[in-house]
DNA sequence: AACCCCTTCAACCGCATTCAC
DNA sequence: GGTGAATGCGGTTGAAGGGGT
């Protein structure tokens, strides 16, 4: 047997709420709470409304922490960044903006923000997101230390207090194309071992997420060994927010698991750091002696991604004349898995079909020191192809805060 | 004043998921 | 495990209001 019937739809009032109805609902909820049952609430409160309507009215308008009025520049920025990354998932975006409702943000986006940012030549959602990604990529700048300054995310002071955890995100959307946010993956990587014993990592944009969970990396590392013949990989994401002690501006919700693959049996490199939407990437290759190899890509590239007509995620490099860099997403992969290949002449290109579909979470972390960015970069050495005597060796320092 | 067009945003709708039985 | 109500979400609608002619 199921539950009792919801409500008598023939006898409920519809349309705009009167001030009297608002007062009744507000008074009732503040005094008694929802009781975990919105369907029964209108009857108890003496309202001729559907429970669903009551819930909507309370959540979107009456509850006390609702922020009415115009959106700030910072809120605009967060909305744009998240929209370019995850699309129209308003509830998640709203979770980043305390006091704002998903309905609010959705309306604001559709009526104002989209036009304000992108002009009136918008044909469809896909174009919108692509343009936004370009905007975001254009917002990436280098400071004098050659570190990234993300102007578009710019949550350095973290005024947003997210109310949704990554675990919740993963659970809510485990079947979405973005299911790399699954709880089983994300919190482990982003967990701060030095913090409380909470099993969940808050979706916050704070430096505290940047602590390595070595157990996970060891496991990750061993998996990687099975598939890669890379000689050495260095991953780093440099950012300049030294004032907050090595914080990254990146929002964890935008992190992308990356597939590292080397189908060419050469010393190709796939060194990467990615977030959906726009991202900056620097690829460098080192041998076991930590000597930088000649075919490293010694400069930053600003890339941005977009969804192609056949729903494939593609990327573009802003300065394609310098580097032919690209990634593809095979059809049997999640959309947010990335493949990075390179040949050995300092250009990167898509080669053969991948030989593995394993995905790896990539350290999302930033270097602590602008003067010596390598000092806190994450790196590990992989055995050279054909040299089975070379013991796999991960190199990382326990407890290092990036 | 009347009409039209556009913008805004609260509310609704349909669907997918969760949950109680 | 099956069923159906409850809940949550995103897309859409339509009333209200403002501005222009």
TrEMBL record:
Main location: nucleus
Keywords: DNA-binding, Nucleus, Repeat, Transcription, Transcription regulation
Record keyword DNA-binding present: yes
Subcellular location(s) of the protein: Nucleus
Domain HTH myb-type span(s) in chain numbering: 9-66, 67-117
Domain of life the protein comes from: Eukaryota
SMART domains: SANT (SM00717)
One term of GO molecular function: DNA binding
GO cellular component: nucleus
Domain Myb-like: 9-62, 63-113
Record InterPro entries: Homeodomain-like_sf, Myb_dom, SANT/Myb
Protein name per UniProt: Uncharacterized protein
Organism: Taxus chinensis
Species lineage: Eukaryota, Viridiplantae, Streptophyta, Embryophyta, Tracheophyta
């Amino acid at each position: 047997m199921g539950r009792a019937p919801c409500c008598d739809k023939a006898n409920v009032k519809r349309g705009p709420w009167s001030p009297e109805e608002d007062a009744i609902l507000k008074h009732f909820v503040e005094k008694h709470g929802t009781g975990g049952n919105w369907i029964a609430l209108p009857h108890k409160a003496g309202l001729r409304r559907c429970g669903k309507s009551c819930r909507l009215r309370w959540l979107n308008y009456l509850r006390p922490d609702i922020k009415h009025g115009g959106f700030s520049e910072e809120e605009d920025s967060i909305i744009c960044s998240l929209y370019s990354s995850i699309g129209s998932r308003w509830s998640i975006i709203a979770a980043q903006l305390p006091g704002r409702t998903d309905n609010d943000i959705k309306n604001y986006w559709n009526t104002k923000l989209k036009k304000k940012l992108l002009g009136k030549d918008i044909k469809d959602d896909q174009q919108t997101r692509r343009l936004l990604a370009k905007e975001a990529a254009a917002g990436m700048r280098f400071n004098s230390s050659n570190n990234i300054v993300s102007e578009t995310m710019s949550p350095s002071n973290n005024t947003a207090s997210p109310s949704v955890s990554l675990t919740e995100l993963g659970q809510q959307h485990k079947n979405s194309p973005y299911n790399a946010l699954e709880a089983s993956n994300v919190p482990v990587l982003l967990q701060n071992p030095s913090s409380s014993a909470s099993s969940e990592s808050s979706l916050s944009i704070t430096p505290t997420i940047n602590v390595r969970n070595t157990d996970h990396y060891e496991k990750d590392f061993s998996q990687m060994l099975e598939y890669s013949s890379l000689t050495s990989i260095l991953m780093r994401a440099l950012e300049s927010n030294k004032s907050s002690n090595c914080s990254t501006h990146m929002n964890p919700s935008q992190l992308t698991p990356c597939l590292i693959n080397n189908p060419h049996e050469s010393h190709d490199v796939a060194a990467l750091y990615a977030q959906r939407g726009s991202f900056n990437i620097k690829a460098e290759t080192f041998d076991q002696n930590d000597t930088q190899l000649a075919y490293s890509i010694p400069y930053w590239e600003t890339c941005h991604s977009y969804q192609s007509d056949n729903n494939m995620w593609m990327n573009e490099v802003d300065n394609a004349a310098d580097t032919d860099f690209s990634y593809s997403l095979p059809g049997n992969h999640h959309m947010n898995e990335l493949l990075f290949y390179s040949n050995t002449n300092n250009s990167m290109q898509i080669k053969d079909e991948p030989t593995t579909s394993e995905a790896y979470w990539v350290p999302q972390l930033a270097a602590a020191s602008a003067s010596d960015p390598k000092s806190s970069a994450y790196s590990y050495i992989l055995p050279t192809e054909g040299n089975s005597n070379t013991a796999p060796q991960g190199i990382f320092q326990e407890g290092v805060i990036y």
